[in-house]
Amino acid sequence: MRNRTKRATSMGATTVRAGTVLGAIAMVVAMISVVGGGASGAATGVKHRAAANPYHLINPGTLTVGMDLSFKPEMYLNKKGKPAGYDVALLDRLAHTMHVKLDISNLGFTGLIPGLEAKKFDLVSVGLSPTPAREKSVSFSRAYVPYELILGVPVTSKTPATIAAWNKPTITITALEGSTDTQLAKKLFPKAKVVGYSGDTAALLQVATHRANAVMIESYLLGEFQKSNPRKLKAEPFKKPLTIQYGSYAVQKGNGALVRYLNKWICGIQKSGWMASAYKKTESAPLPPMPRCP
Hints:
Elements: H1 2-6, H2 10-52, E1 62-67, E2 70-71, E3 75-77, E4 83-84, H3 86-98, E5 101-106, H4 112-117, E6 123-128, H5 132-135, E7 138-154, H6 163-166, E8 172-176, H7 180-188, E9 193-197, H8 200-208, E10 214-218, H9 219-228, E11 233-235, E12 243-252, H10 256-272, H11 274-283
Parallel strand pairs: 1-5, 1-6, 8-9, 8-10
Antiparallel strand pairs: 2-3, 3-4, 6-12, 7-10, 7-11, 7-12
């Protein structure tokens, strides 16, 4: 190519070189146009994807939730094998408000936070208390469910209803493993033997069959157990409530966008009265006082 250009006439060489330069310029302009358009398109695409998934869901358009559906009436499987209960009613409304599908994964309690950390879920809905230890690995919304922790004991129990009477080495107290129930039992009764179980039913049965002296449990769960196991357990009538706690949604650590949305949404259904209505319908009881919204 170089040899043929050198043999051309002066005019011809100039013409060829000019044509080549002009062609090269045209090609560069075209390439800049294409590249520029592609970069702009890519940026637009990224921006569009971000806008389409503002709450950083694992699968855009779907809210993936981890639950332990063994806490009737708060969350459980109904006779048709479908998720039901207070938490499920709230999640159905939440997904509808967010304009996304709802995908519930049923998993044992102790696997929920590890599953959230492994990005298997966008959210865990099981009434978790935002303890300092948990806040190291996940982020929490404001409270959406209240519950009172009580001591369930055999109906034949003769132990006085005092902290001192239950705080002895001869006392065995059961609770849900890894829960605030276990933490409270250890805090209130440090001298007693506190044993954790993978499910509340197992913890309750230990007491009902007299293999343990008491169980630290949410009041509504004891109520459900009493329905199917009458004259087995009762709530120990302490003069003052042991504690009233509140459960929150847990989300992947640092997902502030989803936390902010949840907080605003929770306050919305709380102020409107929808939360109280859903609680009464599913729990058959009035909604206890909730933390005030700003």
